[in-house]
Amino acid sequence: MASLKHVLCLCLSAWTITAAEDNVPKAEKLKWDSLDFKTIIKWTTEDSDHKYTVSFSSDGDDWRESQDCIRMSDSECDLTGDLVPYDRAYTADIQTEPEIVNYDEDLENYPHTYSDPFNPYRESNISAVNITVEAMDESSVMVNITDPLTGIHTRGKQLSIRDVFRNDLKYKISYYKSGSTGKRDVISDSSTAEVSKLDAGESYCFMAAAFIPSRPKRSQQGAWSQEWCIPGGGNILHELNLGVWVAIIFILLTVFFIIVTVTVLCCKCCRQRNSTQLSAPV
């Protein structure tokens, strides 16, 4: 009889826990959002007074709580400083907790939601580099690239993507001749790259992007920089666009109209003066 009562108590306890869990708003639709190694885990949930604690683990290691994301009301957590070393697959655990903690209650009975694995080194998006282009001679230029900074700070220094990727970081430089639809790509190991064998006297436009060939193909390339165009050394009239031509024609017509108007007025004044002199009495 005592054994039966014990079984009934266990069943009732399990039913109570299950019913409680069913009424707790779980974290859903977990999503990693990472740009330049600033990595945030986001989720959605129903409005409630419950709290959320974020833990993380990599490659089967023990779970650790993120110290900045314990019993929080927000639905996102910045894990940038936690995901070290960078080249590991991390999984996040979002646990729902009650607003008021009953220390006699086992919080593990509250629901957990787990994210897909995420590797910052291989998957974090990389923003656009900045470039300048200097003409070296008629057929070559020097492309100078400035790396974007990351969300990682070490010993008071904010690291650049070069500091993180080191020799894995390369650059893809894309360029085309003005008026042409064909583009050429060059891969450079250095942030200072010479592009040669350009057609003398022609203008060219350049773009560059970070390129990490050791990554999966979908995340190998960062965002493209803004275009930087250099004029050619040929006939300047060849470089003028439609708007400039319209302005030049308007100015020429205006000058022509002024010259004609002044000429007509001068001729009219001369005729009037000559007519007055002829009609004067001798």
TrEMBL record:
Localization terms from the record: Membrane
InterPro entries recorded: FN3_dom, FN3_sf, Ig-like_fold, Interferon/interleukin_rcp_dom, Tissue_factor, Type-II_Cytokine-TF_Rcpt
Endpoints of the signal sequence: 1-20
Subunit description: Interacts with HSPE; the interaction, inhibited by heparin, promotes the generation of activated factor X and activates coagulation in the presence of activated factor VII.
Full protein name: Tissue factor
UniProt keyword terms in alphabetical order: Blood coagulation, Disulfide bond, Glycoprotein, Hemostasis, Lipoprotein, Membrane, Palmitate, Signal, Transmembrane, Transmembrane helix
Domain Interferon/interleukin receptor: from-to ranges: 132-230
Protein's job: Initiates blood coagulation by forming a complex with circulating factor VII or VIIa. The [TF:VIIa] complex activates factors IX or X by specific limited proteolysis. TF plays a role in normal hemostasis by initiating the cell-surface assembly and propagation of the coagulation protease cascade.
Family: Belongs to the tissue factor family.
